[in-house]
Amino acid sequence: MPKLFSGAAGSRSSGTADGSAALRLTGLTKTFGDLTAVDRVDLTVSAGSFYGLVGPNGAGKTTALSMAVGLLRPDAGSSTVFGVDVWSDPVHAKALIGVLPDNLALPERLTGRELLTFLGQLRGLDPSAVAERTQELLEVMDLAHAERTLVVDYSTGMRKKIGLATALLHAPRLLVLDEPFEAVDPVSAVALKQILARFVAGGGSVVLSSHVMALVEQLCDTVAIMVKGRVVAAGPLDQVRGAGSLEETFVRLAGGDARVAEGLSWLAS
Amino acid sequence: MVGVLIRMKLAIIRNSMTGGRAALMVIGGVLGVLAAATTVWLSLVDPSGPGVVPDLLATAYLVWLLGWVVGPVWGASSVLRVDHFALLPVPRRQLAVGLLGAAFVGVTTAVTALAFLSLIVYGLRQGVLPALVAVPAATLQLVLVVLLSRASYSFFGLIARGRVGSAFTGLMLAAFLVLTQSGWIVVVALIYSDVLTTGFPSEYSTVVRAIPSGWGVVAVETTHNGHWWRAVGLLAAMVALIGLLLLGWSRTLGSFRHGRATIRGSGHAPRATRPVLAGRTAAVVRKELRTWWRDPARIQMLAIVLGWALGTALLPLTLDWNATLPWAGPAMALMAATVACNLYGEDGTALWLTLQTGTERQDVRGRQWAYLLVFGPLTVAVTVGFTLYSGYTWAWPWLLALVPALLGGGVGLAVFTSVVALAPGPDAHKRPDNPLEQAETPWQSQVLFWVGLLPPVPAVVTVVLGTVCDNAALLWAGGPVGLATGALLGWWLGRVAVKRLRSRGPEMLFHLRTGHAAETTTVKADVPTVELTRRESLVAVFSWILGPLCLFPQGVVPVMILLAGADLRLWFLALYFPDPLRWPIAILMVMLGILLLFQAIQLTTKGRHSCGPSPG
């Protein structure tokens, strides 16, 4: 059996000093009316790790990640990126992160190339570097053929890919990706996995949220399971899943519903 | 189906009701009841002219019909969106009937039904049989306007996907605005002409009766004249028209994914290497200019601005009056701010990129420069061209004072309102099938239009002084004063917008993402939180609407009429009082307007400060 501990990833923190943790969330809390979406979450992502955040729908993954990167103000708690506080020193912190939020708009009336060029300029990158990286990203993401298509006309998968390209463009040290593989075709997914694996091998850190357990098992070295706004298990992948698969552990912790087996009798009749 | 959809609509309305929305609903309802009462009153008047009452009624019904057609195009998304039902295995016609039934539930339908009672009143005055005909006629008329409204919404949505179609709907809205605001000229002309005693010209009567909104009146009229079979024929024609419209509309409901007009971008993104063009603000300017050119919603804004300004200035030409020509340019600058009052709402959750790159200042300033690049040259060209053509050389000092102040004030007010009074709508990529579905900004536009008149005040006062004192230096000093006011306001309001975007960016993003304003965020426990109560937000909305009304049309304008000694009353309350009371009432209205505006600003800023300062 894996050793599971509630919200204790912070104490795990692989013994690193504050500055070397790529992302550290401390007591992060967010309440919407009566609902506590994220409840005193502590997480530490060590530098160079590939971190998977899994949880059922409505577990608070997106809310937690939004607060972590500075897109949603927490009610309490803090988020630091390589020791820089996201909420008190946002300019410095945000330069270190590349973010892919789930299902948010982009400047919709630009083409993919125009969007990346625009962002490169906003990030203050050198123009020739921007042109070079844009070309490379468009080719890797297989978007170069849609040269003249505006982002508003992109398919869901294409939106995901251009979103990833925007997160990678400024070569950040930490990537925070919310459901990066949703709606992405298998061929592009293989390319993306290679990019992310190479990024981590080169010293970068990745945090991603996903529903797909197999994917998390394949990519991540560390995982955290969130249920109802709280971290119920966190640690190295092998430790969390123990002898079984990650899916089994996840279903057990998330409280798999016994009624599913018996219910919906009318469906098959 | 109808019952289910009605319950669904009521549930959605209930769940999205806020104090502000409730206030708008109540105000709309009151105005609607007033309009309905006026229509009923028309059926009760007793002018001596032949056929005047049916002509007046047919005209009123035409206005109601136009209102129903234009209303939804102007007023953004409907409560029940057709694509909610895309996967339901329900025949299209049944869905159409269901949606139509649900469309009947609303304040607008209730007040229209009240207005159409006038047809029954008119019938009663004609006799028993005409009254009996009037009942089904009024009912069919109501069904017709509601159905036409839904059908035209689908139709305009369909054509507005392309840029040409957007420009067309924009021009249509502009035309409706021009007609509505000029409506009082028609009323005055009616009252002072002898139409009410001699009757309308026969061509006019024929036209208003030939349009379906007039068929009910004709049915009642012909019954009175003994041609009851004609009345039956007209009622049958109305039923047939309703059937045809329902059929046509249900067809548009079926194809949920139409091939839409795809707007193409360019295949390359040129590298900007020159220092000025390579900066962050320049990047935003380029992005904004591309959006102004490629986004159907922005094209529609441009069309409204152009159509409204040119229409307002050119309409008086029909009366051989060309003194309005020089003011087309200033009118454009004023309207530009009014339509661009929700730039951040239009772009939706794309705000996250601005927050993530920490480019709040560059984003606001870039939007301002792009706005000036789009509207500035147009305004200047129209001003110069029209003024030269009109030959009114005396207008130049006024225009030099007005144009820069209006443009500068407008570019400041537009970004200020976009940030402070953000109105979220569906993101562009979530509404590919109908670009007309936008955020609702009824009070933002209304308030901006009146507040937008304030920036040129110092410059205009200078020119007035120059004219009164016959001092050429003062007269021409209006230009520099206007330029200075415009530049100062554009810079200062932009700065306020930047500050607010920096401190409240995440809350704005939350608002855009969820459609709800962010609740109190107690980042620091010692920050006192002040939330507006429902009653206070109601009072704020009422004050925002009534304040400008009291101050300008009911206060400043009557004062000017009193000063000019003109013998006009129209709808100016003060002028209906006996002489010694006119001045005090007009001044009272001005003071009341100022008080209400003060209260509105106070309540709004109180609400805004409620979330405490940013920790960053």
Helix and strand arrangement:
The complex is a heterodimer of chains A (269) and B (616).
Chain A: H1 9-12, E1 21-32, E2 35-46, E3 50-54, H2 61-69, E4 76-81, E5 84-85, H3 90-96, E6 97-100, H4 112-122, H5 127-140, H6 156-168, E7 174-178, H7 186-201, E8 205-210, H8 213-219, E9 222-227, E10 230-236, H9 237-241, H10 246-254, H11 259-262, H12 265-268
Parallel strand pairs in A: 3-8, 3-9, 6-7, 7-8
Antiparallel strand pairs in A: 1-2, 1-4, 4-5, 9-10
Helix pairs in contact in A: 4-5
Chain B: H1 2-15, H2 19-44, H3 52-74, H4 92-103, H5 107-126, H6 128-159, H7 163-181, H8 183-192, H9 195-198, H10 202-210, H11 215-224, H12 228-254, H13 275-278, H14 280-294, H15 296-314, H16 328-339, H17 343-347, H18 351-357, H19 360-390, H20 395-420, H21 442-451, H22 457-468, H23 472-514, H24 534-564, H25 579-608
Helix pairs in contact in B: 1-4, 2-3, 2-5, 2-24, 3-5, 3-6, 3-7, 3-10, 4-12, 5-6, 5-11, 6-11, 6-12, 7-15, 11-12, 14-19, 15-16, 16-19, 16-20, 16-21, 19-20, 19-23, 20-23, 21-24, 22-23, 24-25
Characterise the protein shown here.
The complex is a heterodimer of chains A (269) and B (616). Chain A is of the alpha/beta class and 269 residues long. Chain A is 38% helix and 24% strand. Chain A has one domain (3-105, 172-257): P-loop containing nucleotide triphosphate hydrolases (Rossmann fold, 3-Layer(aba) Sandwich). The termini of chain A are far apart. Chain B is mostly helical and 616 residues long. Chain B is built from 25 helices and no strands. Chain B has helices at residues 2-15, 19-44, 52-74, 92-103, 107-126, 128-159, 163-181, 183-192, 195-198, 202-210, 215-224, 228-254, 275-278, 280-294, 296-314, 328-339, 343-347, 351-357, 360-390, 395-420, 442-451, 457-468, 472-514, 534-564, 579-608. The two termini of chain B are 52 Å apart. Chains A and B meet through helix 3, helix 4 and helix 5 of A and helix 14, helix 18 and helix 23 of B.
